[in-house]
Amino acid sequence: MSRMETDSLLTGASGDYGSSSGTEDRGSPCSRRMSYSVARQSCNVDRAPGDEELYLQQAVVFIEDAIQYRSINHRVDARSLRLYRWYYSRICQWFLGLTIAVLLLLAFVERPSSLSISSDPRFRSPAWQPPCGFTESFEIVCLLIFCLDLAVKSYLIGWEEFRKNKWLIAYTAVIVFSVIDWVLSVSMVCDERLRVRRLLRPFFLLQNSSLMKKTLKCIKRTLPEIASVILLLALHLCLFTMIGMLLFAKNADPKRNGEWELHFKDFSSSLTSLLVLLTTANNPDVMIPAYSLNRAYSLFFVSFSVIGTYCLMNLLTAIIYNQFRGYLLMSVQTSIIRRRLGIRAAFQILCCRGAERAAEEGVAVDVMLNVMSRVQMKSYYRAAITKEAQQYADVGYMEREQFRKIFDELDKDRIKEHPPLPGYNSPVLQTLQNVFSHYYLTILGNAVALANVMSICTILVLNSDKSTADRDNYIMEIINMCFILYYLFEMCLKIFAFGWKGYLSYRNNIFDGFLTILLLLLQITIYIIYKLPYSQWDPSSHGVVSLWEMMRLVNMLIVFRFLRIIPDIKLMALVASTLLDLLKNFRAFAGILMVVFYVFAVIGIWLFEGAIKPPPDMSGLSNSSMENISSNFSMECGTYEQLGYWPNNFDDFGASIMLLYDVMIVNNWQAFMDAYSRYTTEWSKIYFVSWWLTSSVMWVNLFVALILENFIYTWDRSHSCSVTDVERIRYDTSVQLMFREQIKEPTEEELICQLHQHPHLHLHW
Predict the structure, then answer these.
(1) Which residues contact residue 68 at a Cβ distance below 8 angstroms, ignoring those fewer than 6 apart?
(2) Which is nearest to 363 in space by CA: 335, 333, 389?
(3) DSSP 96
(4) Phi, psi (degrees; rounded to nearest 5) at 246
(5) Which helix (H) or strand (E) holds 90?
(6) Cβ atoms 212, 205 nearer than 8 A
């Protein structure tokens, strides 16, 4: 074991790490009142060759931990720090993420394979089935990589921390179980029906993301509060089910039994009908038979919907988000403490790195600048922190509070400064530059783009009844050519006014310029292939691609280019910014939903693979011939068979994902539930209801609430800004920043207490 693991890292004059007092301090709880006078004590250490460099490395790693909200409870000797930085490097983490993605994507290739053009059993050709050992080879390589990942993590945090970490213990168990199941699968020549390890694969995605683990923990804590409302919802459902069975009991007159026959024949069908009505998927179909007899029956269904759909369901959404938000705040509080703790540890390391000066003098500015030059972080944050640190160059050092405040730059918005305009000596060129750099040129360009889109729309409407072979593409081609030449002219004017660097500093210019160049290349290609087309000329036999197909691609790009107006309209710019932030910063929430999709899809394949098969006389029939099917197979209106939902099945992983998505949308989801209950058993409804509760009721509503929270956060910060300011300011929204104002800062005593409990960093004050 290295010297830094056995000796005190930062010792007092005695250097007695093994003393009972030192051990007692490290094990003391943070709730205990302590009298620290850190800023006023000397910090003398025993210096050894290379220690100075080691202390700088430790400070660099602690600052990187603070930036990424990582725990600092890891080994701090030189070799471990090198391994730690390599493990959290971009390449290593990207490779680990790629390994997880490969393992999860194996479900599309494994038996039953999803490698077929159609999932419809009527038209589906036999999918390619990989030979035994093909996917298993990829799988065992991924598992070996996970073993290496587990070994590195365990070494870096040490055995004591490993025993306390439930996620790493579970990680070990999942890997061991997966390897055992893999061995059994290979020994059975891949002929087993159930691969239990497929159900455990999403765990590798969960354990690799700290935010996913926090999110899952918050959801777990929210479940007891959700259960009370779901119980009330179930009571409401059962109460109206019994009332409905009493209202729509079987009548002696067969003509008055429509409601009973279709929806209230028994308790199971009554409960299912009202459960579907709770999602409005079968409204007003469920009440039409009764409503046609007596309009007063509508009061029953309206009362059920108002209480259940509009009151209880929305109340459930509010409770889910309110409780989840509270627990999420607690998790974010932990992240903020990690950041403050990492910064505090770096300060103490740099204070006591071996210099023979009192600790109250703080951190030398030149040392701080040296450390920041080594930290792996975004360049604009490094520049901002370095600029703040240089303000103390005259004093020569920074005190603890000053050291902490310079890292507040991490929580600030990035303001992008555009390069200065190029200078021209000629007065004429200067005048033209002022004209072409004006905002009105962008407005004119947007108006021209709108005119282009409207012309395409007009021609499409006029030619909507014509086939592609009968359309006159000459007029549209000439119109598009004129607009594309204007786009090229506008781009050249902006480059003249702003210069190349200034032009490319605007994101909308990059988008606009790329599409303009692409449209120009396509236009040149059209003229090379078709020369100069003239009216009444049919080029369909000319070349590999017809003129219509080329024109269609050009028109699609022109319509897509019209999105350039988004940055010029403040509200649209904020909405687009919110969507981009969701893609970047809310991947953890989407990842949890993907995990749920994966687990339910695997279970669905186990339960329902091959359960629904079309009748033999339907195989190979086209959709247009479905009306001519013989009466040997009758299809009731609104059923799975009559609606032609055959491609939605659990016959492979890809089809299962699509079916679960359709159920999550809750449009006609009762058709799937009814079909699988008829083809298998009534108990199959439990599967679909569980998926509806998990995806549509809880997770989708939670995701929508977070979208609103993110948008409100962005709007509150930018409502007073102009369109230009919105374009310049890069809002780096994250979960931590969204709830930043509601989070309590940790006290100095709490930070010192946690530093004393560090398993590898032994501080003596």
Answers:
(1) 88
(2) 389
(3) H
(4) -75, -40
(5) helix 90-105
(6) yes
Q: Which tokens go with 571?
A: 């509200």
The reply to whether the predicted model has a pTM over 0.85 is: no
3-state secondary structure of 711: helix
**Dihedral angle, C-alpha 543, 547, 553, 559, nearest 10 °:** 170
CB of 193 within 8 A of CB of 610?
no
State how far the Cα of 81 lies from the Cα of 142, in Å rounded to an integer.
26
Is residue 331 within 8 A of residue 217, CB to CB? The reply is yes
Question: In sequence order, what DSSP letters do the residues of 712-764 get, joined into one string?
Answer: HHHHHHHTTS-HHHHHHEE----HHHHTGGGPPPPPHHHHHHHHHT-SS--B-
Q: Express each pLDDT in 309-349 by its tens digit.
A: 998 888 888 887 777 777 667 777 777 888 889 999 999 88
Cα–Cα separations (whole angstroms), residue 740 to 412, 537, 747:
11, 65, 16
Give the contacts of 28 (CB within 8 A, at least 6 positions apart): 34, 753, 756, 757
What is the CB neighbour count within 10 angstroms for residue 622? 8
- 171-201 pLDDT, tens digit each: 999 999 999 999 999 988 887 778 889 999 9
228-237 contacts at long range (C-beta below 8 A, 24 or more positions apart): 229/312, 229/315, 229/316, 229/319, 230/316, 230/693, 232/312, 233/278, 233/308, 233/312, 233/313, 233/316, 236/304, 236/307, 236/308, 236/312, 237/271, 237/274, 237/275, 237/278, 237/308
Q: Is the pLDDT at 664 greater than 80, yes or no?
A: yes
